[in-house]
From TrEMBL:
PANTHER family: 6-PHOSPHO-BETA-GLUCOSIDASE ASCB-RELATED (PTHR10353:SF122), GLYCOSYL HYDROLASE (PTHR10353). SUPFAM superfamilies: (Trans)glycosidases. PROSITE patterns: GLYCOSYL_HYDROL_F1_2. The keyword Hydrolase applies. Its EC number is 3.2.1.-. This is Glycoside hydrolase family 1 protein.
Length: 477
């Protein structure tokens, strides 16, 4: 029997500007990081190794993010489809470089501001609440090449100007905001989250945690500014969350799993939710030779700018042990670990663990006692269009049904869960691989890895299933 979801639960879907918007040079937009990342397996190599040059080379690579799925021109059609499913909320991001093309201008780009006005108006026309991420892997390229990304404290100033601009412009249109997407993934892939390619493995942690400190200050400032400009606004943090299981009951492995969970799952959350660096940070910094430049007033700003709610992505859990061989290592979303013998995996090797979502919800709520929102969860898979045009993605329905059931269990446990936006509610470009073929959506987009396709939208079987889930408030699964 399905568990009862609270009245007013925010059902919806999630996207990011750089993965579906397109129009990468239109409307006065400047280049951002995603615009120079090529598609295909080479992308993972680029974002995980030092020395990326940030140049576009059409002779060697394709750049699917440039067109995405052309939401820039088709937003009315797409929002109508979201409304048909019954969305209460739609998570999207603002492309920073559409508002400030270089990132360091004194005045914003009016064409960019007007575009998001039209999008928000269209959402409201259909009764859909926007949930807007301020920074979702879209650092303006100029800030990366000229300033070195978030390692440079100047970006705190530039980000403040950006958030003041969008909060002032959209104060009557957007209530729910998120600051930095998957902020805790930055130490694993600094290029994506912090806008710099590490010079070496030796400097990666030092530079990453310094960049994170700047983001903590910027996030706290954004919360304070948002509350000042938009009374009643709700501003959250956004984590990538993966419960860490010990491979066995060996106390050494249990302790290792705990320490990994602390630094990955809780370090950023403690700072953004509790407003201070956690107790375990001091030893971790000492053992990894990390010395932060913390300026006067930073810690006070962080303390005063704690978030109103916690949002997170959940795709998988992680199983680990202290000593492991290369053969044991599994494949994960920004995370390592070893294969869990009790779990199946997706076609991309991501382990499927619905109960892990209930564990995640209980861990987060137990630690912070703040409202929670799941803003990314979904199954990347190859979808086949049948001769009659149908797309029978029963595997996606099964995946989501199992996860939503565990959300219901967590609510029964006493967790304050306020919303769920499934990732890639419409097919888009994969962040990690730059592929169209890794599809997440309830809506199929006729676009393929070789660049071919009409961009026609089609409703998958899961479209109608999710519509029933929403209309029944989670009772019909």
């Amino acid at each position: 029997m399905a568990k009862q979801f609270p009245e007013g639960f925010l059902w919806g879907g999630a996207t990011a500007a750089n993965q579906f918007e397109g129009g990468y040079k239109e409307g006065g937009k400047g280049l951002n990081l995603a615009d120079v990342l090529p598609g295909g397996k080479v992308r993972l190599q680029i974002i995980s190794q030092p020395g990326f040059n940030y140049e576009i080379d059409h002779t060697k690579y394709t750049y699917p993010n440039h067109e995405g799925i052309d939401f820039y021109h088709r937003y009315k059609e797409d929002i109508a489809l979201f409304a048909e499913m019954g969305f209460k909320v739609f998570r999207m991001s603002i492309a920073w470089s559409r508002i400030f093309p270089n990132g360091d201008e004194l005045e914003p780009n009016e064409e960019g501001l007007a575009f998001y006005d039209r999008v928000f108006d269209e959402l409201h026309k259909h009764g859909i609440e926007p949930l807007v991420t301020l920074a979702h892997y879209e650092t303006p390229l100029h800030l990366i090449k000229e300033y070195g990304g978030w390692r440079n404290r100047k970006l705190v100033e530039f980000f403040e100007r950006y958030v003041r601009t969008v909060f002032t412009r959209y104060k009557d249109k957007v209530k729910y905001w998120l600051t930095f997407n998957e902020i805790n993934g930055a130490t694993h892939m600094p290029l994506i989250g912090l806008g710099f390619s590490p010079e070496s493995e030796e400097t990666r942690l030092q530079d990453s945690f310094q960049g994170l400190h700047h983001q903590f200050v910027a996030s706290a400032q954004a919360v304070k500014i948002g509350h000042e400009i938009i009374p009643g606004s709700q501003i959250g943090c956004m984590l990538i969350y993966a419960p860490v299981y010990s491979f066995d009951s060996n106390p050494d492995n249990v302790m290792y799993a705990r320490q990994e969970a602390d630094i990955f799952n809780f370090f950023c959350g403690d700072i953004q939710v509790r407003g201070e660096y956690p107790y375990f940070a001091k030893r971790y910094f000492k053992e990894n030779n990390i010395e932060l430049d913390i300026r006067e007033g930073d810690l006070e700003t962080i303390k005063e700018g704690t978030v109103d709610f916690i949002s997170f992505s959940y795709y998988m859990s992680r199983t680990d042990k202290k000593e492991k061989t290369p053969e044991e290592v599994g494949v994960g979303n920004l995370i390592g670990g070893i294969k869990n013998p009790f779990l199946k995996a997706s076609e991309w090797g991501w382990e499927i663990d619905p109960v892990g979502l209930r564990i995640a919800l209980n861990e987060l709520y137990g630690r912070y006692q703040k409202p929670l929102m799941i803003v990314e969860n979904g199954l990347g898979a190859y979808d086949k269009v049948e001769e009659d045009g149908s797309i029978n993605d029963d595997y996606r329905i099964e995946y989501m049904r199992d996860h939503i059931k565990q959300m219901g269990e967590a609510i029964e446990d006493g967790v304050d869960l306020i919303g769920y936006t499934s990732w890639g509610c419409i097919d888009l470009v994969s962040m990690s691989t730059g592929q169209y073929s890794k599809r997440y959506g309830f809506i199929y987009v006729d676009k393929h890895d070789d660049g071919s396709g009409t961009l026609e939208r089609k409703r998958k079987k899961s479209f109608f299933w999710y519509k029933d889930v929403i209309s029944s408030n989670g009772e019909v699964l």
